[in-house]
Please model this.
Amino acid sequence: MYLPKSKYKKGSGAGKSLVDAVTKVPFSGPTITDFLGRIFKGSNPNSANEVLESTLPPEPEKDNFVNHYVRPTEKDYIKGTFVRYFAKDSRSGKIVELNKQAYLKEVSDNKLYRRTVKLEWYITGTLEDSMINGYKAFGIKTKNQNVIDQAEKILSGIGEQVLKDTSQFVR
Model:
C-alpha cells in the first residue's frame, strides 16, 4: 500500500501482543500504523500489506476531545483580535475549540487522525462593510468570514460546526 509519510508511523511489535490477523501467529518485528490505527507488518509502507491484530482487550478510549469555552480578555479587546485554536478528529468528523494548552498538547501528540488550526478572530470595529472615500472597508463580519473560509481549507466543516456566528465576541 502507498501512504504519504504524514499518514503513518513506524514502530515495533515488541511488547504489544500482536498476532498475524490470518494465521494468529505472534509477531514482534517492525510495524507500520496507518492514520486509521490499523497495524501492518514491515518497516516500509509500500510493502506493508499483512495486517496485525492485538491480543489485548481494547482499552476504553477516554474522550479528552472536548470543547473548551474560550473568551477574549480585555487586552484582546484593546488589540482588536484574539487567537482561537481548533482541532478536528478525522475518524468522527468532530471539531472542537481548544484553549492554548490543549492545542499545544494536540500538536505535540501528533496524532495522525487529528488536524489542528490556529486563527486570528476579529472582535472590535465596525460590524458591516462600509465605503470610505470610494473604497470598500471590510467590516468584522466579512473579515471573520474570510478567516472561516481559510480555516475550512484545513478543517472542513468548521463553519457549520463551530464558527457559525461571524460576529461572535464583537463589542
In short: The chain has two domains: 5-54, 74-161. The radius of gyration is 22 Å.
